[in-house]
Design brief:
The structure is a single chain. With 400 residues, this protein is of the alpha+beta class. Helix content is 28%, strand content 27%. Strands 3-16-13-15-14-17 form a 6-stranded mixed barrel. Strand 7 and strand 8 form a beta hairpin. The chain is globular, with a radius of gyration of 22 Å.
């Protein structure tokens, strides 16, 4: 929701200084070099269930085909313009009888696989939509709310002030005629949003609400048996701080044993310290009821379990097919080698090689997502026919 803003003289100076800082950072950033990878060299390519990936890609194409042809897809070095995607999307949408063989042939025909030349490995984690009990009305048992997006929260598009800041936004509120940062988690938990009729549902446990914030969506099961999906509506603009890092640094949980389940168990065992731990993450998420049967990602399309990927959109375009080659940290788990589609983002997903695999809804999906902290690499499937000045792909030997 866009609203008119009043910005003080100090605020204008802040924006101008921010413009200089961001421009310098962008100019200094290294432009990555890519190498072309034959499909047969992608580890496990001939064994994947690409039909599931094509179904997920078709959902992205519904969004990509609705974009004007000259729309830029960030980052342009990989995303180019919307028209670069229209041919492959139109062909993909026409496939109604999907098999793995048909899907594999489609991706090989319409895409070129590329990889970063250097700095190729990174961290891959998992996420899911948890399911918790809730109530439409507060009570002694249900007294921890999920909030809708507050009316006083405002999003300022810095591109309106400088072309160098196109796509950059800051979030805040107006106080005494000045644009200031929005309330943090501690203030909100202490009642800063009470009496505004923002409560969507009430949960039993504050850690339930906290983990819904981390995952970005979830299912609430009511006492009468009804189930309702709630999804991301916005955030307070504060930086995301992973609380697992604090538990590792304090020696509460070892780095090898850290997982969502381990963090949750520590909070259950240490209820007096749990609140203070949650406040170390000032980021706060607001929700909205969803009519869809599946959570919706940043691309505004339903997510597909095991085939949707959350990425840093500064490095990976939303809608792009991505091949994963991941090695698990536990000996019992199998390597993850599969085609996924970049359809979401996340507060903790920052960096050139960093991503989050979506595993679905409920406890079983949580068992897949929670322990995941795989090391690995990804390969990008770029539409064929891209202009050379948009993406130059030098020939290089492929290392298996």
């Amino acid at each position: 929701m866009w609203k008119s803003l009043i910005i003080t003289g100090a605020g204008v100076l802040f924006l101008l200084s921010l413009s200089v800082l961001i421009t310098i950072d962008r100019d200094a950033e290294d432009v990555p070099a890519f190498v072309k990878i034959p499909f047969e060299a992608l580890p496990g390519w001939d064994k994947d269930v690409q039909g599931a990936a094509l179904i997920s890609f078709q959902k992205s194409c519904a969004a990509l085909l609705s974009m004007p042809p000259d729309s830029k897809i960030k980052p342009e070095i990989l995303g180019g313009l919307a028209r670069n995607w229209h041919e492959s999307c139109q062909a993909g949408m026409e496939i109604s009888s999907i098999s793995n063989k048909v899907a594999r042939r489609f991706f090989e025909e319409y895409f070129t696989a590329v990889s970063y030349r250097t700095d190729t490995e990174g961290l891959f984690t998992g996420y899911f939509a948890p399911e918790y009990f809730g109530s439409e009305t507060p009570s002694e048992e249900y007294n921890y709310p999920l909030y809708a997006l507050p009316e006083d929260l405002q999003v300022l598009d810095l591109g309106d002030f400088s072309k160098a800041l196109a796509g950059e936004k800051i979030i805040g509120e107006i106080k005494d005629g000045a644009f200031v940062p929005y309330k943090d988690r501690k203030l909100i938990d202490e009642g800063a949003l009470e009496d505004q009729d923002l409560e969507l549902v009430w949960l039993k446990d504050p850690t339930d609400a906290f983990f819904l914030h981390i995952q970005g969506s979830g299912v609430i099961r009511y006492e009468n048996g009804d189930r309702r999906l709630f999804g991301y509506a916005g955030k307070n603009g504060k930086a995301y701080h992973a609380i697992g890092k604090f538990l590792i640094e304090s020696g509460e949980i070892s780095r090898e044993k850290i997982s969502m389940q381990a963090i949750r168990q520590w909070m259950t065992d240490n209820p007096m310290q749990a609140q203070a731990l949650m406040w170390k993450n000032p980021s706060y998420v607001f929700f909205r009821p969803l009519s869809e049967n599946a959570p919706v990602g940043a691309m505004n399309v339903p997510l597909t379990p095991g085939r949707s990927l959350a990425v840093d959109r500064n490095y990976v375009p939303l809608g792009m097919p991505v091949w994963l080659d991941l090695s698990p940290t536990t000996e019992l788990a199998d390597p993850i080698r599969r085609l996924v589609i970049a359809q979401d983002t996340g507060g903790a997903i920052k960096g050139r090689v960093r991503a989050d695999v979506y595993w679905g809804v409920g406890a079983d999906a949580g068992l897949m997502a929670g322990p995941m902290k795989d090391k690995g690499r990804y390969y990008f499937l770029v539409p064929k026919g891209r202009e050379p000045h948009v993406l130059a792909i030098p020939d290089a030997a492929v290392k298996s």
